[in-house]
Design a protein that fits this description.
The protein has 16 helices and 38 strands. The chain is an alpha+beta fold. It has a domain at about 585-700. Strands 1, 2, 3, 32, 35 and 36 form a six-stranded mixed beta sheet that branches.
């Protein structure tokens, strides 16, 4: 069952009106009330820009964009954005800096709207599990692979046998780690398998317990996390019912810490509880958290240990079930946090098999809880303690932050997702197994992760037919299922997988580094990065990511990240377009055909294969139909060039005859009149054509969406601080 609702501009306008009622409480001027041709610089809302030109750590491969190019780009942007009541301010002497930082300068963050150019992300997907013999097995696939490969990591590294593997990455996604607990004769030891792209030739292992001098055996799943200073931390529950910590760096000396001995009041861990660790942020400070189950009578509570380096002298402890008044838990806790925030959310499996969320919002003294099952009407969870996972996706349609997702198995073997709908302003659920045609029931554990810059979703599970399946979707729209591999061997421990993505210059690490600088150093500025970047090449045969030295050839931005990225050597002509993306506007164009034949084929595919009605076949070219309703289908500049031989042609329309459409009357081709808004800021036509002079750069719906990003969306810090939170954070209402 799924709950959906179409985008409503009326509701959005009401939100904007409500937000303006708050604006008098802030010192910054409200968004200019007058937008359109009569807006002026004096009445426009002023947005301050800050430019960061990057280079590698040694100063090599520096990004370049001259002061005149920056000024020209800002001038063009101001000419167009004045229609929306916005004016950008910038002073080169004060607002431009150079930073030598390889991570900031490298770049493989490829948004989906340029995927058709042949550019791609670097992400390789990994699913890790232990077989019945105690071997750690990796299944993986890369961006150009048609299927999945498989590798026995235990055999590759000549490592001890083990179970309960957890995978993660460090060093900007270039180093892969798999932490596991040893099996007999090394029972309870904590080991690490690791592989570094371009450094090691094969997987290697390290005995972390021996390195740290840890003699307490681990009982169950370890939980790894890497703090911003690069230190790796491994938490585990020992056979003494204490929470233990191992910390250090791969291949070097490791150290130990008994957290229950350090905090005598800390609750003991349930012997076979999963631990989960996570980080919250408050300004430049970060806090480490560990959550786990602790015995409470016949049932279990959720306990928390927490520590803020540089501010805390010791770890602290909480009983979150008691503090929040939540029902007792039956399954292990699963936390999630929003990017760069100190709010905490812990998803638990209650003894009544409801999905609960225990949460604490920054600035509020008390922990609270919500029954997500009752709020959404979702089915009960399977009576299995590990059938839940959580993850976040980025809201690329509405641009109001991140979307939390909770996935779990039901008693009939379906995979169900509860998620927060920014469109509806409430929690809803989907039965993914029902939506994905041909999905095989699965009653085992699952693992969830994202790819494509946190836009595409994957849930890997073992079907009841003993095959491995991937439920996947792009943007939580249409869910499909595909088989990964056969699980041919008996599974003594049960299929209990973990997953991660890797790749040199991992896109999420690039985003994290840039967002840290923008959010922490310039919270009230619109930050523009100028970076050399690199074009990615993927070697499918060797399953390795190989980087070329060519600079990135495109600029980009999106409605989630706190920055705009400009290509090296840019003349600034595409700055206005990418500022549009920053303010939540999507491309007006979809796939861009090179000629009439390409265009006909795209419409036929959209109607005959994807099943759309022939009368709306031209919507295949409408790139922003999910977010605004007043921009017509836009086939792009290449088709105009092919037909009229001139991008600046005076011809404003093109008739496309498409034969052989399902449902279309008669043998005559169906005619589509394509009339794109060639002057629109989000098109890819040449904005400098004199024939387009005087035409509007925005539609009314685009201006409403753009203003919403500033007034009630995640761009509020450009106007005032703190942001209004009634939209950005999930509200708990039915």
């Amino acid at each position: 069952m799924s709950h959906t609702k179409s985008y409503s501009l009326i509701v959005l306008v009401l939100f904007i009106s409500l937000a303006f009622s708050f604006s008098s409480a802030f010192s910054a001027a409200p968004l200019a009330a007058v937008a359109g041709s009569d807006a002026s610089t004096s009445t426009a809302t002023q947005i301050h820009l800050h430019v960061v030109v990057t280079a590698n750590d040694d100063g090599s491969q520096a990004g370049t964009m001259t002061d005149s190019a920056i000024a020209s780009g800002i001038q063009k942007a101001n000419q167009q954005f004045l229609e929306a009541g916005i004016h950008f301010t910038y002073t080169p002497a004060a607002d431009k800096e150079t930073k030598n930082n390889t991570l900031l300068n490298q770049d493989v963050l490829v948004p989906s709207n340029v995927a058709s150019t042949g550019l791609e992300t670097s992400e390789v997907q990994h699913v890790i599990d232990a077989d019945d013999k105690g071997h750690i097995i990796e299944r993986f696939t890369g961006p150009r692979d048609s299927g999945w490969g498989q590798k026995d990591l235990t055999a590759a590294a000549s490592a001890p046998l083990g179970y309960e593997p957890i995978g993660y990455t460090s060093d900007n996604g270039g180093m892969q780690h798999v932490v596991f607990v040893g099996a007999s004769p090394n029972s309870g030891k904590v080991y690490e398998l690791y592989y570094e792209q371009g450094i090691t030739t094969n997987w290697t292992y390290q005995d972390l317990s021996a390195s740290a001098g840890e003699t307490v055996p681990a009982v169950y799943f370890p939980s790894p996390i890497v703090t911003p200073d690069g230190t790796e931390h491994i938490f585990f529950g020992g056979n003494d019912n204490h929470v233990h910590e191992l910390y250090g760096h791969t291949g070097s000396q490791w150290y130990k810490n008994d957290l229950n001995s350090a905090v005598p009041t800390a609750p003991l861990i349930y012997a076979i509880s999963y631990l989960r660790s996570y980080i919250t942020y408050s300004g430049t400070a970060f806090t480490l958290h560990v959550v786990y189950l602790t015995p409470s009578g016949a049932n279990y509570h959720v306990a928390e240990l927490f520590y803020t380096p540089g501010q805390s002298s010791n770890w602290g402890a909480n009983d979150l079930t008691q503090l929040s008044g939540s029902p007792d838990s039956w399954g292990s806790p699963h936390p999630f946090t929003y990017r760069w925030q100190s709010d905490q959310y812990i998803v638990t499996h209650g003894i009544d098999h409801h999905i609960y969320m225990i949460y604490n919002l920054k600035g509020e003294p008390n922990w609270q809880h919500a029954d997500l099952t009752s709020l959404t009407g979702a089915p009960l969870a399977l009576a299995s303690p590990g059938s839940i996972d959580t993850y976040l996706t980025d809201d690329t349609i509405f641009g109001w932050g991140e979307i939390p997702h909770v996935v779990y198995n039901t008693s009939i073997g379906h995979i169900v997702e509860i998620y927060y709908s920014n469109d509806l302003g409430q929690w809803v659920y989907k039965d993914l197994s029902h939506d994905a045609v041909g999905a095989v029931p699965g009653s085992s554990y699952n693992t969830a992760y994202t790819t494509n810059s946190r836009q595409d979703q994957h849930i890997v599970y073992a079907g009841d037919d003993n095959k491995l399946y991937d439920l996947h979707s792009s943007g939580n729209t249409i869910w499909t299922v595909s088989a990964l591999a056969d699980i041919t061997e008996p599974i003594t421990y049960g299929f209990d997988p973990t997953s991660y993505t890797s790749g040199v210059g991992d896109s999420y690490s690039v985003r994290a580094a840039r967002n840290r600088l923008a959010v922490f150093d310039h919270p009230h500025d619109l930050v523009i990065f100028v970076s050399h970047g690199t074009d990615l090449q993927y070697n499918s045969a060797s399953k390795l990511n190989v980087w070329s030295s060519n600079p990135r050839t495109f600029s980009f931005a999106n409605g989630v990240d706190a920055f705009v990225a400009m290509k090296s050597g840019s003349d600034g002509s595409d700055l206005a377009h990418n500022l549009g993306h920053y303010f939540h506007l999507l491309n007006t164009f979809g796939p861009t055909p090179n000629n009439v034949s390409d265009a006909i084929g795209m419409v036929q595919q959209y109607v005959n294969v994807q099943g759309h009605t022939f009368t709306v076949g031209d919507q295949v070219f409408d790139g922003d139909k999910a977010s605004v309703s007043d921009t017509p289908p836009d086939p792009g500049a290449a088709l105009w060039q092919s037909v009229y031989g001139n991008l600046c042609s005076t011809q404003n329309s093109l008739v496309l005859p498409v034969p052989g459409l399902t449902g279309a009357p008669g043998p005559v081709p169906f005619m589509y009149a394509l009339i794109p808004l060639r002057k629109n800021i989000m098109s890819n036509f040449d904005q400098s054509c004199p024939q387009l002079s005087g035409l509007p750069s925005f539609t009314p719906n685009q201006i409403t969406r753009l203003q919403a990003a500033l007034v009630i969306g995640n761009r509020q810090p450009l106007l005032y601080w703190p942001p209004i939170r009634f939209i950005y954070l999930p509200t708990l209402k039915k």
